[in-house]
Design brief:
CATH topology of one domain: Porin
Largest sheet: 8 strands, antiparallel, barrel
Strand content: over 45%
CATH architecture of one domain: Beta Barrel
Structural class: mainly beta
Amino acid sequence: MKKIILVFIAAVSVVTLFAQDKKAISKADLANRAGDHIMLQLSSDHWSGVPDSIKDHQKSLSRGGNIYVMMNKPFKNNPRFSAAFGVGVGTSSMYFKNYSIDIKSTKASLPFNTLDTLDHFKKYKLTTAFLEIPVELRFTDNPAKSNKSIKAAIGVKVGTLLNAHTKGKTLLNRSGGTINSYTEKESSKRFFNSTRISVTGRVGLGNFSLFGSYQINNLLKDGVGPQIKPFQVGISLSGL
């Protein structure tokens, strides 16, 4: 995941290097500058550090959604750069096949159960939600026309766990036949780290950008399971 972080840092450096600085940008030019105060993100979600026994049961369409309200403070000596901070909610839903994760277990470690030859749910996911404080260093090539400008940002976000739950829908037998339309939802934060720290990066044009985030601490508490480090790659929409 270090490569992802380096790519975003390199993107900021390249944009900065080739940004034209032929004339100063006056305060009047920035009167209607958009500060990207609202940021919506849709992501493809993944886990690094998981053993094959878990990876083999993960579906490729795991996804997440984030929403943040941000304050943006341009630098007086160079308004192309700004510092932004805010608050929001980040969610992630990891989907599995022929699998269950017993987050309500009373055992010392979190049970990950393979159900290839047992009754199982047709759809099964583990969802987490965090209240987060994101901080970014932003670059806008043309702050006077930020909605049409090249943009890039690197940052960090710190979150606290709001909810962790599993949800299974439509119970199947071991042969894949439908038993019933039963839905099971279980919630527990016992095995999960209450704090999440992630590094982030974005690069794009106008209100749209590609973003990535990588959690640098473990999803689970020490000693209760594998050292899972979630990461997201997706599309970000920002404005206002």
